[in-house]
Amino acid sequence: MNLIPFAGAVVAFLLAISHWIEAVQKGRKRKQTISSLGLFSLKQNFFGIGYIYLYSSALLFLSLASLQFHIYGELTEGINFFPFLYGIHIPCLFLIGPFSYIYFEEMSGGEFYKIRIFHFLPSVLSLLYIYLMRPVDYQLPPMDLYAKDYNSGFEYSIQLLLSFGVVSIFLYTNSIIIRVLRWKFGSKEKLESSFWPFLWLLIYSLSVVILFVLSQLFFMRMFIVACLGLTSLLVFILLFKMNHRELIPNFQTETSLARYKESRVKGINIPQILKRLDDLMNLEQLYLNEDLSLPILSKRLDLHTHQLSEILNHHLECTFRNYVNQFRLQEAARLLLERPDMTILSVIYASGFNSKSSFHKLFQNRFGLSPQNYRLQSN
């Protein structure tokens, strides 16, 4: 039975590796997109969040892996062979809350701006406390006394820190629940198919946290049941990931618009508008509509035309026409390479242009070759 937390740690570690690889690929893709579109100022919006946010999902699962490895070490008393590792689960516990919130933001198409560096201070401070204040001759108490006899100040402080860590997870989880409930019942854009699956996922996660609390307070061996619940959840996530399926189908699609509407009520949220603008272009491919205009795009964003124009000019350093044409040129270049059966004229209209002459001029300026030569040289 002691192998359950070990198995959970292995699954969590595999998920951490998978998300780390995805983060590396995502970072490269964003750099390529920014470079190819010439929208250099987007770099600040995408990369200003820092590497800690880019790799947040991987760090979340790495924290869960460390937590389960530590539990396995305590249950088997193997932690006694590596006493310097005792207590490392507490900083990891403080990381689960903020990283879970960022994971939720990622699932729902957000940009993590509500999580600042100070959210990670409890983890850093607890790490410093454990390794600076631990007695030199400290010995891990026997399993039978661990939850009953706190005969030293350091052991009592460990229990106190564990309690604070669990409370922090509750607070972050409840904030997620409140956020989704507000989108569900307070927005015209209802979360139709994804609300209940997401709510049950949160309830299950909270139940696992409660099991860990009961284990810590009353009976150490209950950690096996808590670890079984956590391991089952991690296996569930891993299976979905291996099958390239969304954990909560339609969740990002349904929450993206609700999130944007929420930001518009509070005022002009530039990062959120840029994120919504990016979704309209990359997901809905509005640029393929040859009649797309500044008023049409402004209406989709619930902005006045002068507001959108100002955002494009000051934050993306381009006009509306140049912004849309960059996407159209990228689409045309893709079609030229991937669809050799299409004529140049067909490519022009399929990529959203309505003028042959303007297309040739823009394409020549962007790629330094005519469309025909671009197709021949690439082949």
TrEMBL record:
Domain of life from the UniProt record: Bacteria
Record InterPro entries: Homeodomain-like_sf (IPR009057), HTH_AraC (IPR018060), HTH_AraC-typ_CS (IPR018062)
Record-annotated HTH araC/xylS-type domain positions: 278-377
PROSITE patterns according to UniProt: HTH_ARAC_FAMILY_1, HTH_ARAC_FAMILY_2
Keywords: DNA-binding, Membrane, Transcription, Transcription regulation, Transmembrane, Transmembrane helix
Pfam families per UniProt: HTH_18
Membrane-spanning segments: 6-24, 45-72, 84-104, 116-136, 156-181, 193-214, 220-240
Name of this chain's protein: AraC family transcriptional regulator
